[in-house]
């Protein structure tokens, strides 16, 4: 995959943000620096869950139980992040998983894994489109006007839904205008989130009541697993950095390091949220608060205005997560379309801004529709997206080991585990085992398995069946390797009678 053939829809730009803008071989503009890429990855992992789900975590597992569950999930993600860091440094191309699986396992595995993670990304985008009007309603209680219908047990109001749909339009337009514009928005909003984090630390220092953290453990192992199953959905996002690798203007080795740093930042963030919230509100009162993290800071600092600031931070988290996953999903669809795995329409670049505009439009359209299905969709979307994400993480972990064995001399600017092969092999094996165990949690065969509702399985199954359809249409006989994408494009063109 050293060469990147140009398609008619992928011509070199005639007008980008700067006449001196560096452009990748596929026409994407290299506009992201180190901080831009880091904030894209970190911001993707800090969505809205820390605002609304903290109470459930503390009630399910207790303060220390919830923190240990997140630490365990974070360790899993560190191993996965290390795997990704080596692969993105070796193959700094848009599409992340698409490139790694194509080179190590071949086209059919690449479609399956890439389609899975794309579905996971889109589920997050849809989740945020529903979450944003729900958050705004806490600030403007009379938001819900003009009743439309009841869906999934939730009443849907026109004014409520339009807030989410309007956000979908705005964020979609920002992403069409260019990766630099999107990253500037990301940097500004993540900076506000970090200020909220500092306020939580300050509030805990001046107003915490340590006895509120009791009990440290509740619910036993099932309680901790109930928290752990949320980890894939909440930590997904570091892998957005590899999706936009062709638009990052830093050395490949540094791109790999940014992946790991973003995971570490997210672990610290979630542990901070659990700890500060537990210090402010007694466990017996948690059920009385809908937005525990916001209420916690208001209690710690003695005024409701601080809770409002945290809610604003929740809105910021929605925007950063939404923006990052729209970047990631659109680049994956762009890469798959460029390789003729899915319709070429998704691979079209905007003639002026050099962004995969059709992919952005498609994903934004799904986000536009999501709020009209009501807030009851939130749980279904989370549960449908999480197993798809873990499938991709598992496959990437496997292909890491495959490439270590099949291509030991492949250029690896960032070689995890040291110069020899033993350290990297250990990291790869642990990543495979840990992601397999995490995936096993979603299979309903044990008393501790996640209990996903049938709507989630329907959404997950429908998306994966569509991916299998695209997989089945690919020509056979193409082996994994460095030139697999070029061979696939040639084979598809020959099969369709194209020149």
TrEMBL record:
Topological type in the membrane: Multi-pass membrane protein
Where is the chain membrane-spanning? 37-58, 64-89, 110-136, 156-176, 188-208, 220-242, 254-281, 305-334, 355-374, 380-403, 424-442, 454-472
Instruction: Report the subcellular localization.
Output: Cell membrane
Could you state a single Gene Ontology molecular function term? transmembrane transporter activity
Keywords (alphabetical) are: Cell membrane, Membrane, Transmembrane, Transmembrane helix
Q: Which GO terms describe its cellular component?
A: plasma membrane
Annotated region Disordered: where? 1-22
Query: What is this protein identified as?
Result: Amino acid permease-associated region
């Amino acid at each position: 995959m050293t060469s990147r053939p140009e398609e008619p829809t992928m011509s070199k730009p005639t007008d980008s943000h700067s006449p001196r803008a560096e452009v990748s071989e596929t026409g994407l503009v290299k506009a992201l620096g180190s901080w831009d890429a880091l904030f894209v990855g970190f911001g993707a992992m800090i969505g809205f869950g820390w605002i609304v789900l903290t109470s459930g975590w503390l009630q399910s597992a207790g303060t220390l139980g919830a923190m240990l569950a997140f630490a365990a999930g974070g360790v899993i993600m560190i191993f996965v992040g290390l795997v990704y860091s080596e692969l993105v440094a070796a193959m700094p191309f848009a599409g992340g998983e698409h490139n790694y699986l194509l080179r190590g396992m071949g086209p059919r595995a690449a479609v399956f894994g890439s389609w899975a993670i794309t579905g996971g990304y889109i589920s997050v985008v849809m989740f945020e489109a529903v979450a944003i009007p729900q958050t705004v309603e806490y600030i403007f209680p009379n938001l819900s006007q003009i009743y439309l219908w009841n869906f999934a047990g939730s009443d849907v109001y026109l004014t409520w839904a339009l807030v989410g749909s309007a956000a979908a339009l705005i964020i979609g337009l920002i992403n069409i205008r260019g990766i630099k514009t999107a990253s500037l928005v990301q940097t500004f909003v993540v900076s506000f989130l970090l200020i909220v984090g500092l306020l939580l630390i300050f509030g805990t220092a001046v107003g915490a009541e340590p006895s509120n953290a009791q009990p440290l453990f509740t619910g036993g192992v099932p309680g901790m697993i109930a928290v752990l199953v949320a980890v894939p959905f909440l930590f997904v996002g570091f892998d957005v950095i590899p999706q936009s690798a062709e638009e990052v203007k830093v050395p490949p080795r540094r791109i790999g390091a940014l992946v790991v740093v973003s995971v570490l930042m997210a672990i610290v963030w979630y542990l901070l949220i659990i700890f500060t919230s537990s210090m402010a509100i007694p466990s017996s009162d948690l059920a009385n608060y809908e937005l525990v993290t916001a209420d916690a800071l208001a209690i710690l600092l003695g005024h409701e205005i601080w809770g409002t600031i945290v809610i604003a931070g929740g809105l910021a988290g929605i925007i950063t997560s939404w923006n990052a996953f729209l970047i990631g999903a659109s680049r994956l669809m762009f890469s798959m379309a460029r390789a003729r795995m899915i319709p070429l329409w998704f691979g079209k670049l905007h003639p002026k801004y050099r962004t995969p505009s059709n992919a952005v439009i498609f994903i934004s359209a799904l986000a536009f529709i999501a709020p009209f299905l009501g807030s009851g969709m939130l749980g279904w979307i989370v549960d449908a997206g999480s197993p798809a994400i873990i499938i991709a993480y598992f496959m990437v972990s496997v292909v890491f080991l495959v490439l270590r064995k099949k291509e030991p001399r492949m250029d690896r600017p960032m070689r995890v585990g040291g110069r020899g092969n033993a350290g990297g092999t250990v990291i790869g094996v642990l990543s495979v085992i840990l992601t397999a165990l995490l995936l096993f949690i979603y299979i309903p065969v044990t008393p501790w398995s996640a209990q996903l509702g049938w709507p989630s399985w329907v959404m997950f199954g429908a998306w994966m069946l569509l991916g299998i359809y695209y997989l089945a249409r690919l020509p056979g006989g193409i082996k994994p390797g460095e030139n697999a994408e070029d061979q696939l494009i040639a084979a598809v063109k020959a099969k369709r009678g194209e020149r």
